[in-house]
Amino acid sequence: MIIKELYDSPNFDGQNMVRKYSLQGPPSIGSAMAAVLGAIPSVDPDSHLAATPPRITRLGDILWSVEVTYSAAKPPEFEAVVDYQFQTETIQVQRSLQVVGAYPRSGITAPNMAGAIGVTRDGIAGASQMIPVERWTERYSMPKRWVRDALLPVLRAIHCRVNLTAFRGHAAGEVLLTGATVTDSLTEENITVSLEFARSENFPSLTVGNIGGINKDGWDLVDVLWDETAAANGDMIIKTPRVVYVHRMYPRVDYGYLNLPA
User: 218 lies in which domain range?
Assistant: First the structure.
């Protein structure tokens, strides 16, 4: 993906800052919007104004024009209800937080497995563990035109993506928009919008075995490559971490484009 600001951008008229870009790479309008929300900040770095939803126009198969207007005008005020849920999920782990005891039989020294659980010659069996998960739902009553023209294109691009910047007091990388429900009405002028979020805590300094300083953001995945060595008595395989990989699993976008109340 290549995104470049045009030579005649930005333009400021005393109230609005308009920036224009060319975008090359995304094949669809949805992927183009996601690329824009992940690359162009929702707060202008010069004027410090907030962005309105980007205008994206196809110029070719993978070529787009992008216009982002940063405005001093505030978005409409929405009535909101927030429900919080503190839950747990069960995952399979290969290592423990800490080994607090090892009790070998007489005459045997317990090998250091660096926290690996259920080590056998065939691999690491691991164990089931419950982890905390914080979830919340924000429900809004919004004007139909605002939802259709401004919110829906942004929702399609942000759904199942992680926050690029701080959101609701949580650091970048911790929040995932897991779902959204838009309930229209034939008679009412407003639409009910429900947004579902989940939070997973960042860990900026993890340690696995003798490997420290591991930076794992909330929705990243940790993968450990283990070394195998034979114990001194030859009757056991000892596994110790060789390399720790941190994988980025979800794209990141700027949640500021949702233009939600603080």
Answer: 75-262
48 with 97, same domain?
Answer: no
Long-range contacts from 69-77, C-beta under 8 angstroms, 24+ separation: 69/16, 69/17, 69/18, 70/16, 70/17, 70/18, 70/19, 70/43, 70/44, 71/15, 71/16, 72/15, 72/16, 73/15, 75/50, 75/146, 75/150, 75/259, 76/142, 76/143, 76/146, 77/261
| 123-148 pLDDT, tens digit each | 788 889 888 889 999 999 888 888 88
The amino acid sitting at 176 is L
Three-state DSSP at 158 gives: helix
Same domain, 49 and 145: no
pLDDT at 76 over 90: no
Domain co-membership, 128 together with 222: yes
CA 84 – CA 46 distance, rounded (Å): 36
- Phi first, then psi: give them for residue 55, nearest 5 degrees: -105, 120
> Is residue 94 domain-shared with residue 21, that is, in the same domain?
no
Average the pLDDT over 66-76 and give the result.
Answer: 86
- pLDDT tens per residue, range 191-224: 899 999 999 999 999 888 889 999 999 999 998 8
- Same-domain status, 62 and 170: no
Evaluate whether 154 touches 113 at the Cβ level (below 8 Å).
Answer: no
8 and 53 assigned to the same domain: yes
